[in-house]
Amino acid sequence: MSRVPYHELKARERIAAICDRGSFNEILPPPERVMSVFLPELGIPVSFDDGLIIGRASLNGSPVYLAAQVGQFVGGSVGEVHSAKLVGLIESAARDKIPFVMLIESGGVRLHEGSSGEIGIAESMRAVFACRTLGVATIAVIGSDIGAYGGMGIFSACCGSRVMTEHGRLGVSGPIVIEKWMGKQAFDSSDRALIWKTSGGKTRYLLGDADVLVDDSTDAVRAGIISLLGQPAPVTLGSVSADQQRLEARLVQFGKTTNPDDIWTASGVTDIAAASLASGGEFANSYPKKSSAQ
Amino acid sequence: MADAPSDTRRRNKAARIARVQSLANGKIVPHEKTADLLGQVIEPGDILCLEGDNQKQADFLANQLASLDSLRDIHLVMSCITLPDHVALFKKGMVKQVDFCYAAPQGTAVAELLAAGQFPIGAIHTYNELYARYYIDLTPRVALIAAVQADRAGNLFLGANTEETPAIVEPTAFSDGVVIAQVNEIVDTLPRVDIPADQVDFVIQAPYPFHLTALFTRDPAAITDVQVLIAMMALRGIYAEYEVQSLNHGIGFNTAAIELLLPTYGEELGLKGKICKYWMVNPLPTMIPAIESGWVDTVFSVGGEVGMERYTAARSDIYFTGRDGSFHSNRPMGQLAGHYAVDMFVGASLQVDIHGNSSTVSKNRITGFGGAPNMGCQPAGRRHPSKAWLKAGREANPGPGSIPGRKLVVQIVETFQAGRVPTFVDSLDAQDPSIMSAMQGVPPIMIYGDDVTHLLTEEGLANLGACRTPEERTAAIRAVAGYTPVGLQRSAAETAALRARGIVKFPEDLGVSPAQANRGLLAAQDIKDLVRWSGGLYDPPSQFIDW
Amino acid sequence: MSPILSQFFGDSAANLSVTNQILTGYASVGSTEVAVIGTVDGTYVNDAAALQLAAHVLDCVQSKPGLPIVMLVDSAGQEPNRTAEMLGLPVYFAHLLSCLQVARDAGHKLIAVATGKAIGGAFLCYGMFADSIYALDSAQLGLMPVEAMAAVTKIPVATLEELSKRMPALEFGAKPFALLGGVQEVWPADGALPDLLEKAIASATTEDNRALLGKERGGRTLAYDVRQRVLAESAK
Amino acid sequence: MEKFQKSFPSAPLAWPSGKTWSLAGVVGSANLEVLMEPGAAADSAEFDVQTSFPGYQDSWLAALSDFSTHYALGGTKVTIHDQGAAPVVITMRLRQALDQLIHP
User: Fold this and answer.
1) Interface of A with D in 2-31 (CB under 8 A)
2) Do B547 and A200 make contact, defined as CB atoms within 8 angstroms?
3) Nearest C-alpha of chain D: how many angstroms from B463?
4) Which of B363, C103, C176, D10 could form a disulfide with C171 if both were Cys (CB 3.0 to 4.6 A apart)?
């Protein structure tokens, strides 16, 4: 009997499956009713947690501050309350020197709350970098249906490390936006195979944007997070100088192609069909992480 | 005696061929000359058959036909009005009468044509009804068809999607009609010959491959917990109860859920080898786990399915395949098999009324009938017995003069459609008067309440076949219609009485607990799991790939 | 050279270079030497732009320790592009932010001024990361104009416009953005910009006070309190 | 947005000690969230519903009434945020939230 994959679970189910059994202690739980004031004005139902569940938990006995977005609720989008809960949690992590882990499932800023969500994401980025400077691990988990896009795509990349599954996608502009901008000939947003090749976990892993690529299961995601808890990834002049070279080289090598297979081939993937079908864990075993792909 | 029938049709065909011989090299016509060819071969008053069902389309020929301006007075016969080019034929005023089966993809456009007086309907048919009339009073003078390959002599290879091509070609070719085929490519040697050159007059290599819809692919990821619940109830309450050996499934998510529960829940119930051995169904990707687990003996299909070519070829024990090793289908024979040779039809619909009639119409769209009524009805001509057929027959109408058996005709619906639209209604969607008159008094009913033996919803299972009166049937329908307005009118006492007689069963009566109903029970969670089950032989279309 | 640059940097604006609407260089604000990065003419930012800006930040950190970094923002957003997404656009933007964090950690003050368009990802990927953020009164700040928001959310323009009278988050522009705490101050475009900028540099601190400002100004009433509640709960 | 409140008689539910709430479901298309908290009257279940699909109050009340009859839910306040869930989903979520209280 097969088990329900990570990407299909709801945020609360993910939390329950990933944390040490019964260890999650929710901050501002549903009865507190900390909810959006914008949505009712627009005739949109509110949610008790405003689409972000936050709390303290333990993973393999180590304490973490954990946040999980609810993708079903307005696309996991980030509004005023949602971002304020997030900033508070990241600042708690900085204060207590406890790793911050976030299960991302968001298309970015909640349009219905306008600029307040945008500022909230900017505040979250400040808070995340403050953690990194302090040597506190910040880990983004990207494996949901919606993925991490818009401001939350950038936020995810600001975290010290990323766990991805083959189902996760990381980007700024989503497929429909790109199709609208570039035309259907240039990018067909109904071609899911192309979308996943472009922004999916495997391509991100080969390029070094995902630190760990794991199976689409809560056990594998949990193990992936645990493997990164001890890696705070502070930003230093040395680290960003190396990144500058790496990202310049990437742009030179692949900036003229539109075909993700070029990246796969250059990374040593010979049987693209088989690699496409492989699970995240199988893929990572076949193509172990070098220091960085490029 | 001058008016006595002789061979006028044959001489007329010779004249048509002579008119266009200069366009062709043997039977091969360059695609640039297609419009010219059609314009000269087709004559006013012709019965013209254009191939196009719910999957395969002679779309290049349709496009070229629609580009003609002077063509008039055509009697169009075709199974599905699917493409904008089909609609264009009417807009241009070419058609004096149309006889067809199904128009859902263009349902709104067709209703508009009708309102504008541009859609002269002869009748709306089921598939086999229309194919049968090709041999009686709707025999085509010209048929425009699609094939995968032709050789230089004009033999055709139809690939996995034989579909309705033979049903069109045979009556046309054997009545001195003209058969024109678009093909994806012309080759020296065909893998196998499906249509002999003898029955083909012209072959055109189209500039693009014919259109094929992946109609039967259902992504397991979109199956809901509620559909799993319904599938569990179906397996216990119908499949196991009647020990159904041979069956047909529709294309909905409910039946996909059943297919995916066979290797898991079905196995747990010990049903393997006892049910679901013989299928009349297209090569559904969601059947791969059941096939790989040894549940299925044979599958015969009315058409192919995009991406299932390698899998079906590699499982020739299960599927019908040609000498070349590749998949073979046949729509009329499949429909006939679905009518006479299977014990159960399982379908779904958008609306069910209080008499159990179901329909896929929605307001102001012309949808038509297609194939479901050929299979979702009682085959009164059936004589061979089976356990399931006899059991359903005993429940239905024991008495002198009655048919001893009954096919299980099962309708599975959720009580509400998306957007909280109730499935159950007092009467089927009132049609626009122009549509009603175009139907010539035939109600737009896909499956008649009289034919339905079982109605299954997430609320419960109603054995309509065992109801004794129309009133009882309505009460049984209300009992499983949940919180729809139709359901809210039920009487608790009536429901209790029906439940006591086993005519209405709720999940707990069937030993199914809604708390257990979970997607985790499915043998495959998504398309990728299906590919894995197939050992990499299934090649899903790219719109279904999310990895 | 764009007049806005001369307005801020006087003659020293000549030392700045603008390549593909991406601004980099060193200049003076009054008596204060600064590094400058930015965008002009409402251009779209992409991966190459992020690298170009990041390179200059790194140059400043390495060759001019402690020099304030001024970021001018005039960009309509990020360009939706298939290749850029494939290459990992969020990672390019985050890299620019990482470089700014390294600068901040090394004692460089970071001051942003929205001079023109400051929209979406283009504002997020550097300007909104500053210690202190300012905007000219003529600047167009916000998530997106009301018409665009209406198109995406399917909420009528009239409804959004009506609501934006009470909810500045839905309004587009420098003033409403300031009410949310998103900018410290709105400057008159024809004001004494060098003076204002020099004072802003002098007074900048690394504390992120935007939520508190938003509460005090009444434009973003919940964010600060919710954050404080989380901090209080987590401390228990 | 349509809002309504209604209480139905229901056998008392013994709230597990230490448990102050339970939640099931999410607010999303054709879905809803259900929050159960201790209520005022031990022999009735109080429902507070807000839904973005107006016009189905009869069907809602019938489903909530049936649930209150079939299950012991007395002494519970149930708050629901709905985005067009079908009744079967309503019942399913109520049962999931209740399960967390019965089998904590």
Assistant:
1) 10-12, 29-31
2) yes
3) 21
4) C176
Interface test with B, best of D59, D64, D102 (most B CBs within 10 A): D59
Q: Which is it for strands B416-417 and B95-102: parallel, antiparallel or unpaired?
A: unpaired
Domains of chain B (ranges plus CATH)?
A: 25-205 (3.40.1080.10), 220-528 (3.40.1080.10)
Half-sphere exposure of A276 (CA within 13 A, CB side): 23
| Fold exhibited by the domain A6-234+269-286 | 2-enoyl-CoA Hydratase; Chain A, domain 1 (3.90.226)
- Predicted ipTM > 0.90: no
Q: How many helices (H) and strands (E) does chain D have?
A: 2, 5
pLDDT at A1: 34
Question: Which SS3 state, helix, strand or coil, does residue B250 take?
Answer: coil
Residues B242-263: pLDDT tens digits? 999 999 998 889 999 999 999 9
Nearest CA in chain A to D77: A31
| C134: enclosing H helix or E strand | strand C132-136
| Least-confidence region, from A88-102, B397-411, B521-535 | B397-411
d(CA B139, CA B162): 20
Can you tell me the distance from the alpha carbon of A119 to that of C223, in angstroms, rounded to the nearest whole number?
A: 10
Minimum Cα–Cα distance from A89: chain C residue: C230
The bridge status of strand A100-104 relative to strand B421-422 is unpaired
Helix, strand or coil for residue B487?
helix
Substitution target in A14, A36, A72 with the highest count of D β-carbons within 10 Å is: A72
The strand pairing partners of B88, in sequence order, are none
- Domain edges within chain C: 3-206
Say yes or no to pLDDT of A293 above 70.
no
Q: Identify residue D91 by its one-letter amino acid code.
A: T
Task: Quickly state the pLDDT bin for A148 (edges 50, 70, 90).
Answer: very high
The pTM of the full predicted model, rounded to 2 decimals, is 0.89
- Lookup: tokens for C168: 């500045």
Flag if B543 and A1 touch (Cβ within 8 Å): no
Touch between chain B and chain C: 3 or more Cβ pairs under 8 Å? no
> Chains near A, with 3+ CB pairs < 8 A?
B, C, D
Contact flag for B and D (3+ C-beta pairs < 8 Å)? yes
Measure the CA–CA gap between A259 and A97, rounded to whole angstroms. 42
Parallel, antiparallel, or unpaired for β C17-19 and C22-29?
antiparallel
Residue B370, helix vs strand vs coil = strand
pLDDT per position as a tens digit, B311-342 = 999 999 999 999 999 999 999 999 999 999 99
Nearest to B488 among D30, D62, D99 (CB): D62
Q: Does C79 touch chain A (CB under 8 A)?
A: yes
Residue A292: band (very low, low, confident or very high) from pLDDT cuts 50, 70, 90? very low
CATH code of domain C3-206: 3.90.226.10
The domain segmentation of chain D, as residue ranges, is 2-12+24-102
**Cα angle value C207/C208/C213 (rounded, 5°):** 115
Q: How far apart are CA B141 and CA B119, in angstroms?
A: 21
Q: Which two tokens stand for residue B282?
A: 């297209």
Please state the rounded mean pLDDT for residues B186-204.
Answer: 97
Check if the beta carbon of residue D39 is closer than 8 Å to that of residue D46: yes
Burial of D61 (0-12, 13-18, 19+ CB in 10 A): middle
Query: Which residues have CB under 8 Å from A253's CB, separation 6+?
Result: A266, A294
DSSP type of residue B316: T
Please say whether the beta carbons of C47 and C24 come within 8 A.
no
pLDDT at position B374 is: 93
Mean pLDDT of the D77-83 span: 97
What is the per-residue pLDDT for B2?
58
CB atoms within 10 A of CB A291: 7
Question: To the nearest whole angstrom, how far is the Cα of A101 from the nearest Cα of chain D?
Answer: 22
